[in-house]
Amino acid sequence: xRISVTGKRVLVTASTEGIGKEVAKAFLSEGASVVxxxxxxxxxxxxxxxxxxxxxxxxxxxxxxxxRKSLEDLVAQARNVMSGIDVLILNFGNPPREPxxxxxxxxxxxxxxxxxxxxSAITITKAVLPDMLRQKWGRIIYLSSWTVREPxxxxxxxxxxxxxxxxxxxxxxxxxxxxxxxxxxxxxxSFRTPGALKGLEELAKRTGRGLDEVIEAEVIRRxxxxxxxxVGTDLAPLxxxxxxxxxxxxxxxxxxxxxGTSGCV
Length: 265
Ligand SMILES: NC(=O)c1ccc[n+]([C@@H]2O[C@H](COP(=O)([O-])OP(=O)(O)OC[C@H]3O[C@@H](n4cnc5c(N)ncnc54)[C@H](OP(=O)(O)O)[C@@H]3O)[C@@H](O)[C@H]2O)c1
Fold this sequence. Notes:
Blueprint: E1 9-12, H1 18-29, E2 33-38, H2 41-52, E3 58-62, H3 68-82, E4 87-90, H4 107-135, E5 138-145, H5 146-149, H6 156-162, H7 165-176, E6 181-188, H8 194-207, H9 211-220, H10 231-243, E7 253-257
Helix pairs in contact: 1-10, 3-4, 4-6, 8-9
The structure holds NADP nicotinamide-adenine-dinucleotide phosphate.
NADP nicotinamide-adenine-dinucleotide phosphate binds at residues 14-20, 38-40, 43, 63-66, 91-94, 116, 143, 145, 158, 188, 190-191, 193-196.
């Protein structure tokens, strides 16, 4: 059996650091062309120089997930440099005021969170879908979190704003999977990234605990396999499978890659 994404043209959003960058690395290592994006020119420059050491088939564009026009521009630029898009992996950032409990949030925070997680997904999906339907081949993967399966009060903004991605994937699958375009959600567990560490440091500060103590209590002991996930070996293999020709029968699905973190069945 050969699981291959060689030659596939992949757009990974929010990908100059953390999970997105590691996902980009994995696809590049498997012979795909990849477009990365984020808001900061400097982060883009640093990430591109790191990723170019793996493959020259990597390109980067500045784009803000909360800005509709910049997302449409991103898709146009990605389509242009790769002569099309076969795979969309929608990764996201985090709301600036997270972790925060409901009473600490204001409506601007909600506007941001809904733009970041939901309207961005709708905007980019609308922009990439016509080409995928024309070429009768496409893979769209929305990255989500175990905390959508088992909501956490301090992640209310993210959990509520990205929960509808499962509905979106299911509805789009019903309508379009017959054209060999699949739509899935992957709910991730804990990966040791700059974003995750920032959240854990904030929690440590709020609760007067040390960072190691917080990591032990909130990540390691909550995870059945008792460790952080590693994107390259724990998450990327699934994404590569879903993005390959062999992934064509998995669609409208929500798949957990969380080391057993969520307590829900
Ligand atoms: N790490 C985990 O354990 C974990 C677990 C479950 C789910 N998640 C989710 O996975 C996603 C990525 O997490 P991470 O830990 O890899 O985050 P991270 O280390 O903070 O990296 C986030 C990346 O997204 C970019 N970004 C942030 N806001 C953006 C925006 N508005 N528009 C475009 N790009 C943006 C950042 O670059 P710029 O700052 O330059 O824009 C950066 O490249 C988040 O949605 C997080 O909630 C993470």
